[in-house]
Each structure stands twice: as structure tokens, then as C-alpha cells.
Amino acid sequence: MQDYPDPVPGPDQVVVRVHAAALNHLDLFVREGIPTLKLTLPHILGSDGAGHIASVGSDVTDLEVGDRVVLNPGISCGRCEYCVKGDDSACVDYRILGEHLPGTYAEQVAVPARNALKIPTDLSFEAAAAAPLAFMTAWRMLVGRAKVRPGEDVLILGAGAGLSTAAIQVAKLAGCTVFVTSSTDEKLQKAKALGADVLVNYKAVPWSKAVWELTGRRGVDVIVDHVGPATFKDSVRTLRKGGRVVVPGATTGSMLELDARYLFWRQLSVLGSTMANQREFEEVMKLVFMGRLKPVVDRVFPLKDARAAHEYLGRGEQFGKVVLAIP
Ligand SMILES: [Zn+2]
Fold first, then answer.
1. Contact 316, 160 (CB under 8 A)
2. Assigned CATH class of 136-272
3. Quick one: pLDDT at residue 193?
4. Distance from the alpha carbon of residue 274 to the mean position of ligand 1, in angstroms
5. How far is the centre of ligand 1, averaged over its atoms, from the C-alpha of 66 (Å)?
6. Is 13-131+295-325 a CATH 3.40.50.1970 domain?
7. pLDDT tens digits for 71-104?
8. 1 pLDDT band (50/70/90 cuts)?
9. Which of 298, 296, 300, 317 has the alpha carbon at shortest distance from 134?
10. Ligand 1 centroid vs 37 CA: distance in angstroms?
11. How far is the CA of 171 from the centre of ligand 1 (A)?
């Protein structure tokens, strides 16, 4: 471990004294090395964070020292054709805290002022830090991309993932019937407490067949598959005609097998989705602030135990977010 100099805010930036950071699978990928990502080492991990404003740049007018804030981890250029259309996460220079930029496993981090959003006094830093990446991703993929409608059947694979705990709640809020899969009944019961309607233990039964039968051999309208090669083939087989599978990541590899006969005969849509734009971030965080969506914190580790926290997340035993407390 070594000490960094404290960051100094640029004119349109703020420096945040981080009190809590949340882990994402992305942190594990960055730690292991992403072939296309060139980093200067040492590098600070961490996309999600919450804390208070420690200093503000000369052009910042809407935030003050001491404000409690949560961070939007996606940083866009504001000038390219996608940014001009408000589609921040498609920015040609889109960067994510902890991936392309120094992250939140730190006492202080500098971000553009627009990336810091004030949080209500009754929301803890741990809960706030657990929200952004999972909820913004869930919101965009289900509401913005899959365009879920009330009454639809939505299947979310791997209920214990932080993203899944957010997606279950977003799909319920949208009026959908939520199917989930998990490896243990304990996690399935926790998913039920979040609102999941139909529980499938994939260690006990082949999940695709089970869901097919549970829907009267119709299939579901939407599937969230962040698992990838291990599940994608079955996901496609589990969709109804006109169904959509949304892919916000792939934790088991990068190549997906797609049977073209299912694709055209059932007229399916495969939708990629990543992060969210500023409007979507603010929409979903407002619902978190109102208590309509609740960040699920599985376990809090002190920052010095970040390694143990990574090992814990890597084993996939968690239900919800793993958080680092920064004293
Ligand atoms: Zn841009």
C-alpha cells in the first residue's frame, strides 16, 4: 500500500471525501487485466462511491463543501455526437471511475461536478454507494432498452448479483411478473423478499425447461442475461415469440452462441446495454432516494480488507452489494 497526493479539483470538478465504495464485477476484471485497457500503474479501483464534498473547482456553483453526495461512475465528454443527443454511455470517450480513471477505493476522488448527486440525510453512505452502477444499469437495460411493460414476464438470471437485486426491484416497479434463478433456496427467499414472484433453483432443476413449463410452454417476454456463454443458449430458448434478451455484461466469457433459427422464427431481439445516461441516472436515483428502490448491501468490509472483499465477490456467495467502508 502507498499514499497518493490528494487530488486537486479542476475548474468544473469537485473532490469527494469517500466514506463508502461498492464493489462490482468490473473491479475483478480490471484487476485481472482487460486486454484493450491500458492503465498506468499503480491504479485505484472502484466505480461506486459516496461521501462528502471536500473541495470544489472555481466554476462549480451548485455544490458546497460538506454536501453529502453519491457518484455517477460514468464520465462522458459532453461534445461528441452521442453526448449531444444525451446518450452519455455511448460517448466516444466514455470513461468509468476505477476502470479508465482513478476510482473510489480511496479517501478522495476528483470527478466532474455533474457526476456528484446530493443524497438525502437519511440515506447512509454504504447504501448510497451500493446504488449507482447496479441501479443505473438495471434502469437503462429494462426501461430504456427492453422497454418492459406492465404484465410482462421478466426472467432475471443469478438473483444474488448486485445488478440482479436492482433489476428485480425495477421490473416489479414496472408492473412485471419477475422470475429469478439462483443456486440456493436461501438466495431465492431473499429475492422473494425483494419482490420476485417465481423462484427457480438451477441446481435442483434445469432452469430453462422449468421456466418453459411454468409459463405454459409460452416462454418469458424479457430475460436479463449477465452470465454469458454458460446460460445464453438456454436464455434464447426460454423466450416467447417476439421476446427480448438483454445483455448488460457476461461474467463467464465473451463469445455467445446464438441459434439463428430461434432468432428469426421467434422474431427475437438481442439487446446490449451498458451503464446509463445522466437523465436515466437521475431518474433511478430519485426512486432510490424516495425509498421506492432499495440498495441491497450484503456485507461491509473495511478498505484495508479490499482483497478479502474481492475474494468474497469472486466466490459468488453474496446476495447484493459488497461495500468497503473508508475510515
Ligand atoms: Zn461524448
1. yes
2. alpha beta
3. 98
4. 15
5. 30
6. no
7. 999 999 999 999 999 999 999 999 999 999 999 9
8. low
9. 296
10. 18
11. 29
